[in-house]
Here is the input.
Amino acid sequence: MSVKKWVHLCPLCFRQKDMKQTNNIMSSFGTTVFTVMSQLATDHGAINLGQGFPDQDGPADIREVAARAMIDGPNQYPPMMGMVELRQAVAVANKRFYDLDVDWRAQVMVTSGATEALADCLLGLINPGDEVVLIEPLYDCYLPMVQRAGGVAKLVRIEPPEWTLPRQQLEEAFSDKTKLILLNSPHNPAGKVFDADELAFIAGLVEKHDAYAVCDEVYEHLLFDGRKHIPLMTLPGMAERCVRIGSAGKTFSLTGWKIGYITGAPALISTIAKTHQFNTFTTPPGTQLAAAFGLGKGDEYFTGLAADLQARRDQLSKGLKSIGFETMESEGTYFLTVDFRPLGFNGDDVEFCRHITTQAGVAAVPVSAFYQQADVDHFARFCFCKGEALLDQALAKLSAHFST
Ligand code: PMP
Ligand code: GLN
Here is the structure.
C-alpha cells in the first residue's frame, strides 16, 4: 500500500518500536490530509480553505433548540436507533424532497455523523473477502473502513477536468463477488453530481450483480445552477438495495455536531443497527432534537443555503481564474478543484498546497491525497463555504503572492 507523501508532514505519525504490531491496516495509513493541512494553516496563520467547514455557524434557531435541550434535557441516553423526533423528521424529509415513502421505525437510524454511518454500513454489510466498488477520488475514510471490514476494494477513477464516469471500467469492476458500491454524490472532492443517466447505469450494475449500494449523500442540499439531487434509492428496484446517508453537519452548517442519519430497507437497517449498537450506541439527544427542528424548516432555508453557497463558489472561481488558475466545474458540495500549472509553479500538488499555505497564507488540499496513485498531481481543492469577506481576503493574498 502506498504511503502518501503528505503523511511525512505530520508530527503525529510515528512508529512504536520493539512491541507487538498494532493493527496493520490502520497503522499503514497516515494522518488524514484534512488534519495535516489544517495544522499547517494554524501554524502559519493561513486562511484555511483546505478542510471543509463553514466559517459561519448555521441557523441560530437550530442552535437554540440544542442549547435549550442541554439545560432542560433530555441529557441521558436516547434510544439506540435515535430520537423519535429526528427519525420521523428524516422520514418526512425523504418524502418531501425525494417522494420516498419511509417507515421511520424500521428504516431510519441516527448516527454520530455520516462518518459513523459509513462505518456502520460497511461493517454491517461486508463479509471478509467481499468486493467493494469505489470511485476515486476517495473521501478519506472510505478505503480504510472497507479494508478494516475485510472488503477487497475495486477502484474505478474519475479524473479532472471532466470527471467523466468510465462506464466500461465500472462495469468491469463489478462481479458476482461484489457486495456493494460506495457512491458519493454530490462528490467530494470532484464537486460532481451524478446525473440520472449515470445513476441508471449504476443501478443496472447493482441489480445485475445482486449487490447493494451505500450512498453517501451528505451534500444532498448543496447543489448549484438548478441541479436536483437524485438519490440512487429512488430508481426502480433500488429501494431494497440502497442505504442513503445524510449529515446535519452539512445541511445546517454545523459540522462539529456530528449528526448523521441512514435511511434504508428494514433488512439492511436492522443489521447496520447492530454495528451502531456495539459502536457508539447513541448520539447526543439535544443536537438530535435540533436537527429534527432544522429538517422541518421551510423551503426557503434549503434553497437559500444552496444559493448562498453558489454565490461563494462563483466568487472563488472568478477570483482564482483572474489570478491565473484553471478552474474545474463544481456542480455541488463545498469544493472547487483548480489546475495550478498555468501559474508556472514548479512542483506537485503536495508541494503547491504546502507552498501557498506557508508562503501565501492560504491553505488548500492536494487532490492526489484522494487517489491511491499520486499521478493526478497538479490539482488543488479549495473550499468555498466561507464568508464573502474571508474569500476576498484569501484571493487578495493569493493574487499578491502570484503577481510578485
Ligand atoms: N462523506 C463525505 C463525502 C464528506 O465530505 C464528509 C465530510 N465531513 C463526511 C462523509 C462526514 O460527515 P460527518 O461530518 O457528518 O461525519
Ligand atoms: N469533509 C471535510 C472535507 O472534505 C473534512 C472532514 C474531516 O476533516 N474529517 O474537507
